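new request in #modeling-help
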Amino acid sequence: MATNFFKTTPDRIQVIKGGVPIFDTNAKTFNRVTSEEVILTGQTITFPNFVNNTYGYFYLNGVGGGDACTTIGCIPPQEWSNAEPSPRTLADIVLGSLPIGTDYIEVIVNLARTTTPLAVFGTVTWPIDIIENLDIALKGGSCLVESQLGLQRLFDIVIVNTVVSGVITACDAVLRRKMSVTAQGIHAFLPGFATHQIDFRQGGGQFAGNTVQFGAGNACSIANTRNYQSVYTGTIRITPCCTVPA
Amino acid sequence: MTKCMRMHGGKLVIWEKPLSGNPMDPFNNPVGFLSLIYFCSDFDYYARAIGATPTISHPNIPASAATLVVNTLTVNISVYTTKTTNDYLLLTHNLGYKPNFMVCDSNGNEIPHGWPIQFAAGTTRKITAYATTTEIRLKEVALYGQTTLPPLSQTYTVVAFRNPDPVVGAPGIRIQPSRVRFGYGKIDSNERSLRRALAGEATFGVPQGPTVDIKNGQVRFVRADGTIYDLNTTFVTGASNYGGSFTGTPAIPAVF
């Protein structure tokens, strides 16, 4: 049988079993303060529409008995975060207060996407990385929710301390969101994230030369009216912990 | 640095004596003096219930043909659309509730949600661990691309923590040669609790902050030990690389 010890000195308290520390004030146990949990039900996490929704234009003359054009909807390269200028600012959202001294949070979410952009090219479900309707422990607080082909959406749940004159006066659990679209793309005329075919027209002589013909009688439509907003809804549970040595 | 311990009124607290003020303040208000608390019977702890080190055989992910999604006289566009999911048993705990748990890789890094364990040229294998009332399981999502990923055998360290409620009948403090218990069952020499590591101990890295960042439409994952994984993609217009400078958040070296 392993020998158990309870050892106390003025500067250290230990429980040791068979030489292995079970409890040791020199190796702080994760103190979970469940009485101060932040539990949010019906919480929404919104990723807004991207800016400058645009299109790629592909034109050929003298094909199929006349000129032809195709327009492809595209989200151009862009970055969104709490540090980006307006209109690409995603402001931090305070989810709740935590005890001062919190240095680790246990985050468990159960989310489903309740607003989904239309399928990509009609058949490919809009990217989703989070597993819906399942209790997911977000170790470190990060959650990549949409990730594919140069388009990313991410949220973090982080600890933010308010410091006044070197003293922590408040501690909050904060939701921080980011969105990013690549500067490259799946076609030379489509930098960013291509999403759908807007239009295709063929025939007639209205596409003279190599000049892009917008607004002509049989020109391809260029209006990209899609809304790429995503919304996730569900439960978020944040348990504050303290592990930092006193 | 003076350690204090007191049991009174159904509460046991171990704390660091404050440098100023009433030395009993942390006992009277543990939440208000959280950073000085080593143990409080009103708090909860990650007490290990059961653990295992299963080896999972992740299957081959074949290269996929791209799907033609736009095909007109002026432009053709193809994308990769295949996505498959596999689900594996890591540990049977039979606790009757969804416990807290940890799943670590063979290098001792706790694995966050949606973590890539294998990737090449657009083909990616990501994993997410989750709990049921009887098991800890691993869900694998594979996104197919132009490259085949070979089978992967991966060993994980898995531990399920028991419900942290007080143990009925457990003492405030009882010290015996065979067993030491205090805090009404919350600390028991018969079970380990998650704690910071002492110098020289083999540790697991517990992420203390964000593990993922995005920039230029690409994603960077940073493992608890600081290893960086960039899942870059090459498009016809050139390489699309992560464009930020994220290097991760220092992890907590822990044992359980």
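bot summary: The first helix of chain B runs from residue 25 to 28.
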